[in-house]
Amino acid sequence: MISFPLLVALIGVALLFDFLNGLHDAANSIATVVSTRVLKPHHAVLWAAFFNFIAFAVFGLHVAQTVGKGIVDAQVIDAGVIFGALMGAIIWNVVTWVLGIPSSSSHALIGGLLGAGLAKAGISGIVWSGIFKTVAGIFVAPMTGLFFALMLVLFVAWTSLKLTPMGVDKRFRKLQLISAALYSLGHGGNDAQKTMGIIAVLLYSQGMLGGEFHVPFWVVISCQAAIALGTMSGGWRIVHTMGSKITRLTPAQGFCAETGGAITLFMANIGGIPISSTHTITGAIVGVGSARRLSAVRWNVASNIVVAWFLTLPAAGVIGAAVYGLTALAERLG
């Protein structure tokens, strides 16, 4: 058992991660709506933050359940593991944010948790079904986003045959407000729940949940508020990469990318799969760009992002394991 001040401090660190998650992933929610000039950046941020916050009223807590007890056995987790997981995720997020790389906050957290869990208990403490589901999401989420975005491009082209280019632009400038809202809703429903799972399993490890794992309502509200505040704080370095470096978008294309991403996130939320919103929207944007012609996608930028995806889990895991090891050593020496 840890002291109450230390428990509060760890919860504070978890909420800081959630805030940084919103800051880091703000671009995912607003890049297309900003790059198409449907909303000014500060208006887009507020729009996304609002829908990030209200996501708890729409989705169940399936993702929180997966993260809380489906990655590392809840019986193994203690304050040291949680601290290692959070520091692994935060340090990796800060590094990629400074470099302007849209890596995955989600997989940074899971990588940190996995690394710290392995450092404490070895492979016997790992819940492999949850790991396989999460790793599969690395591949499935962007491909699903790409597929739905492509299908939507074809549908939009077919239904807009009788419209002038200006008419198409006018229609989808309005519809993109809806697609951006849906994407932000899906983002808030998936990403905030990862922090909920971390806080809930920390409380569970301290015997504060009555012997049965669940997510208290105050944890739900705190995490949704933290990610919304993070989104409001921006993430402008990554907006440029997501919104214009991969491909140039029109309002209709932005609508297709956001809606394709939103459908993917909604499916993951219902299935309790902690996927990456960054992977999802990048796949959708690539799908929209390649629907025009393959040369419309700046594949060198997209490939750099893919490299960052595969670095995130092991890099955050190594940091998480190192932090856990240093924490355990400090406890023994103290």
Describe the structure.
The chain is mostly helical. It has helices spanning 4-35, 41-53, 62-69, 79-99, 105-121, 128-159, 165-205, 217-232, 236-245, 251-271, 277-292, 299-333. The chain has one domain (4-333). It has twelve helices and no strands. The two termini are 16 Å apart. The relative contact order is 0.22.
Which features would summarize this protein structure in a list?
elongated; mainly alpha; 334 residues; 12 helices
Domains, number: 1
Helix content: over 70%
Given helix and strand content, the structural type is mainly alpha
Q: Treating each run of at least 4 consecutive H or I residues as one helix, how many helices?
A: 12
Subcellular location: Membrane
Organism: Sphingomonas gellani
Transmembrane segments: 45-64, 76-95, 107-128, 135-158, 217-239, 301-326
Keywords: Membrane, Transmembrane, Transmembrane helix, Transport
Write a compact overview of the structure shown:
This protein has 334 residues and is mostly helical. The chain contains twelve helices and no strands.
